[in-house]
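Follow-up to my earlier ticket, as requested here are the two runs.
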Amino acid sequence: MNPAFAFTHYGEPLYERQRWRLPVPLDRYLAEAMEDWRREGKTRRLWQGDASLWTSHDEANWLGWLTIAEEQLGDLDSLQKSVAEIQATGFEHVLLLGMGGSSLCPEVLSRTFGRLPLQPQLLVLDSTDPAQIRGVAGRLDLRRTLFIVSSKSGTTLEPNILKDYFYEETRKAVGPDLAGSRFVAVTDPGSPLHQLAETQRFRHVFPGSPDIGGRYSALSNFGMVPAAFMGLDVGGFLVRTLEMVNACRPDILLEENPGVMLGLLLGVAANHGRDKITLVTSPCIRTLGAWIEQLLAESTGKAGKGLIPVPDEDLAVPDVYAQDRLFCYIRQHDAPDLVQDAKLDALEEVGQPVVRIELRDKNDLGQEFFRWEFATATAGSLLAINPFDQPDVETSKVAARQLMAEYEAKGSLPDEPPLAEGDGLKLFADPHNAAELARLAYGQHSVTDLLSAHLQRLQLGDYFALLAFVERSEEHKASLEAIRTVVRDRCGVATSLGFGPRYLHSTGQAHKGGPNTGVFLELTCDHPADVCVPGHRYTFGVVESAQALGDFNVLAERGRRLLRVHLGPDVRRGLATLRDQVISALK
């Protein structure tokens, strides 16, 4: 491609739509990093797959994302032909069953573009919560629904058991001979899912790229197949994306390379105490923050260091923030939020570092996928880690599988006595955390006293993480955001919110492998209206509980500051009570 593609059709170079303002010390560190990057020819080495840029391990095997946009364009006719044949069937909905890297990009596209005229509506399900599964299933006419089962390895638990459930329900609706025709798969060639798709006569299998990891796969079939099914102009989307790809090539001046410069900013900030990457996005592209969150956390949160992404945290007055933040403002030019503009201006004026990225419109999302992938790889070099592995993700999966196997054998999960009970809440902790909480609570054992003791553990530079194994509804999210805000404002720390099991494939890596600066509050609930998993003794509610307990155990083994709150069967009431208890605890 000609480097001229680095310029938009407005004649404005892409690098001029990425600006920053830093305090003097950070600006000096950035200049030093730029000089080293330029002197060592590191942009060229990145494109050439030089593993010594990171840890000299297998990094060169995971760089297919650098060229996938151009490859997808070259194979566009094949994709469009397959999609046209399927769409001619007249499906009303397309439901993607995935997790992590296979679900977050489709969700960004679905939420950002909405339902396009005369096209099926794309929905995404990446949860084992029974209430969420029933909520999605209730929206579907299974006779007019196409399912995309999306899993790179083909062995991921969540999409596999979701496929089992919906395949059985579809078989009941349309008959066993037609059930397979309602399913397609996106998976690496030869994977167990690929083999199953052939056995069950799926309508189509779209291949993944073995040299692209899940969280870098947005511009591959994992993102573009769902995009095509929802009616997005994938060709135009990818052509615009190539503007960014070519703006990041080694023949572009370092100062004008958007991906490298953003990556240097992220890496320098983290190496000098500003590792809380606070993501502020225009309302129309709000879900982009969750995609970036996974990319940053899972790629860099290892070896006791990393970037801690903070999306969806409502902006406050400057006094609330400590000196551990880097604010990244992704602003949609044609749909700005003037209140956000004013708040970022105020933060900048008091010396907080602010990076501003301007999108012309939502069709620039592909450019952001590539910009942040390139930046994450660059930041990984400065952090001296491998940004393409996820060594701590598997630990929680193993723990959950062990608990599920125990349930299959015994018909129950392990029972444990609570530390405290009150107002419908139960608190649980491992022995080490229980002893520490008892010490901080001076022997008091009420729910409020123990919550207060737990929140006292937050220190300057820490972050507070809510890990919620409940339905991801707007009502629940609002209640949890209220708790985040109270903790941030009273304790002066960054906060994050993850819904399980989704966060296990995202920030879970940073929680366990990143810096030990997190204070975690895990939330679980009962499932009065459960959903069966075909072919198994366990239900989706049991799976979710096992995933929560498994991650709890691994976090405890890693010496993390951790407390679990069980909300009971009425999640709405439980969250309201918890909010009141947190407010009381912080007094």
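Run two:
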Amino acid sequence: MARALIFDRRRCLACRSCELACAVIHSRSRRLDEAIGEEPRPRRRVSIVRSGAGLEALRCEQCDEPLCVFACKSGALHRMPDEGRVVLDEERCLGCLMCLMVCPYGIRPDPVRDQVTRCDVCQGLETPACVTACPTHALQAQEEPSHRVHTDFDGHVVVVGSSAAGIAACEAAREHAPRCAITVVTADEGPEYSRPLLAYALAGRLDTALLRWRPERYLEDEIGATVVRGVRAVGLDGTRRALILSNGQEVAFDRLVIAAGARSARVSIPGATLSGVFGLRDLDDLEGLNRLTEPGRRAVVLGGGNVGLQVCEALVHRESHVTLVVRSPYLLSQMVDEAVGRRVGDLFERHGVAVRTERDVVEMVGTQQVEAVRLDNGEVLPADLVVVGKGIEPDIAWLKGSGVGLRRGVVVDSCSRTDIPGVFAAGDCAEAVDPVSGRSQVSGIWPVAYEMGRAAGSTAVGVERSTQGALRMNASRFFGESIISIGEVVPERLAGASGHVLVDRDGSYRKLVYRDRRLVGALLCGDVSGAGVYYRLYRESVDLGAVPPEELERVQLELALGVVRAGVRAG
């Protein structure tokens, strides 16, 4: 059972005794007289705020389906399998703000520590400090039972892939079907690791040992799975219900979850296979880049998306001379609008990156090792290494002829089913429907991959679970500047949408996109407060009625919490 905080606004005096007690109990000394002088200052986890409906206490809800855990790419946030409670390992937190983006309740930014803080319901104390301090008993602690559903499914679930979608599928299958057998087939020979953290390791922000986002032997010891490592799936016989492996073996299955992921997109130009040309998708790429990246080296990065910019920042930290080549007119063109894209370009140029927009590489020059790149305008840029960050290619070639429906990725429904009964697909190898545009697309976003994997694993063992589709979201931090993008932030790309810039000044940009009385996009730069509430309004497609954009920041909390809190325990 997980302990949760219950709030009765009718009893609350807004005296903020709970906030003070929370800050003190999370100080180093746990004494008020000493905590006052501590640096960095202790931060409260519980906050009393005023919404349109009155006072509200923001605290951890201990959700049965915790989106913060699903969004966490470092493993800092996880749910204890035996108790169901959510905990935060602050040593693993990288301050990526993905959890802040999806949670309107109990997560706050902590810029001093370059992390987040989160209500932990005072685990380890018999009674939470805020509850003890509340003079009117407006806050109470309550043990919440888990609402997990168990099935009698005892067949064999085979999962291809061991990243976000694959592990989520294993967790969900084991949670709902304790007696089922699980086999994981993974091309990785070592422990499971988080690919989004590779750029952090390249920058030297974390040791490669911390790339692992689940404990060592997690699949074997906690999930009870058989893991076949260093082997790829190369074929599928749906009639015989057999998975064909690269070592010549076959694995029979009752249910199959394809979570094979994707590879870095390749460039088809002369010289693209020269030594010194990398993606950043696996440990081999990281090892090769670490070997070549030294102070003074000349690096060219292709692609102005999130990965390309993370690589640029990492190489700047490694004291390389970096040139960024981007085909679009501004950076992060799929994530931000032109105003923020140009701000980001200026930010990178201030940190020494030479930015070439509206340009593309047509040739990589060298004999065996790359020595330069040639742009489409004839300019030649010297290069000791090149990093290609131009998107992903789903790993689906091995499925051709299997009967599984394929477009850019595997075609699935909202529960991650393919058109072969008992076969599911999830993550970067699968397509899901964007709920705003209605188009089926490969998302390539960690939280979407995790939720798709969870839907696949649950549905496979008899607990039908659907996802919200290819929701668009991303949280980034470049050179200390935070950006959160939710949904469609360029209204011109969406018929009937209108954009509304609420704040546009140095250090802060806030923009909302409306369509049909619903929030379909939010772009926050610098000041990212309220991101979790905006995400829930977008995710749940809340009808905002007559609330104009300029008023939404005042009433957003009431709208979002009123809609999603009703289903917070059941997910």
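The only thing I checked on run two: The two ends are 16 Å apart (CA to CA). Let me know what else you need.
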